[in-house]
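<instruction>
Derive structure tokens from the sequence
<data>
Labelled lines for chain and fold:
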Amino acid sequence: MDLFTAVIHRLSSFRLRRIEQYALHAEEIQSQQLAVVLGNLKGTRYAEAHGYTDKSGSYIEYCKAIPVVEYETIRPFVNKMLEGERDVLFHGGCDRFAKSSGTSGGRSKFIPVNTAHLKDCHFRGGSDALWLYLSTRPDSRFFRTKGLVLGGSSAPVSCGNEILQGDLSSILIEKMPALGNIIRVPSKSILLMDEWNAKMDAIVASVMHENVGSLSGVPSWMLVMIKKLLQESGKSDLSELWPDLEVFFHGGISFAPYREEYKRIIPSERMQYRETYNASEGFFGIQNDPHDPAFLLMLDYGVFYEFIPLDELHEENPTVVPLSEVKTGIVYAMLISTLGGLYRYELGDTILFTSRNPYKFTIVGRTTHYINAFGEELMVANTDKAIATVSHALHCDVAEYTAAPLVLSDVGKGRHDWIVEFSRVPKDYAQFATMLDEELRKLNSDYDAKRYTNMTLLPLQLYIVPEGFFAAFLEEEGKAGGQHKVPRLKNDRNLIEKLLLREGITKIKNLY
């Protein structure tokens, strides 16, 4: 580690010691976070609407008064805040809202991002990811190089009353602390450009001759930028252009389908990949061990966690447990209560704890991103892993994919339709489809049971699309760049039917 990086890292030692306490005092730390969150709630319009007046800070009383909610329940309260009203979800007002929208036509969500939540959660998460990385990287030259940040797909747009909304990444860039601004490239003005193609050109031109040592962003969009950069520079791989490149902090989507492609375009043995679990609603997990893909649950970010077993999620009175009562090996839907004004809020992600000391977990998928039309209970974690395994075996790379069920009423069975975009194609598409089906059967016993002798599920149908297909679709939907992504799995056909109407799709004949 160079002297400058070592000095800055040494200043973070107190923070690393605090994180080490997660393993010994998790429940105590979470109790402290609940107290802070309840102080944030008391006296607000939201507390008044639910009759919450408890002064004891009791978790039991909190659960009695405040219901488990999804975004549509709190939308009316957020709308009041967008109009400039104060003391609605937390004390005071809010001038920044993270716009979060799905890809299937749903109404946009506007997540409040107040100063306390921005500082104690989002920015603390970003700095902790760096400190944890440096703690295992004695050869790092992080602060002697530049950090390329890719995000902020559109400049914030005025909502009136001096209130602005935009991608969370644009808010983070706008409000970024001084240390981050010193090493970050490109400039804030480029990152906040609102036209994606023009911004991509500007980013490439800006960073071409910089000494970049780190990358931060969503894997899919970062890959688009890297390929354009290599094309413009005439280099065969990124290590030629940036020999000091050492780490990619990534999040938003699973890295598994992209891992082989990144290894190919960044062949450096020094390169590491660290995943972070952050969303518009908050920053929740960091991959603290390069040899373990699980996230360390971050316990002192002004976030109180609760969990619902996934198989009870849609019951009228599901079991809800705090962190101290979770078990390993059970898939949970995660609830959060935050300084950003979200209380017992269903985040929409499903997770699986791999350890309780400290609390570590993997993301299984989204509560809305799965296929279970025939009892197969297929999750994104299954499909991402299967895609990665088959791609490695066939020496190909998948850029994007989505899948959905199809009911074949004439034969009383069904199948899954897959649309796949390759950045490096396999020699035989039909073989890819066959191996993908076989790998899914190995990974998911429910899928295997439904596929047995074609009893319920017929072999999957593969559709191939040209490179850039999904990016073009997102751009037409006004969702190019940044944090936007196509759902891997949907349990309905709304999205896939829209995609199948587009040009350039090739239907692959099965080998079965």
User: Anything to note?
Assistant: The radius of gyration is 23 Å.
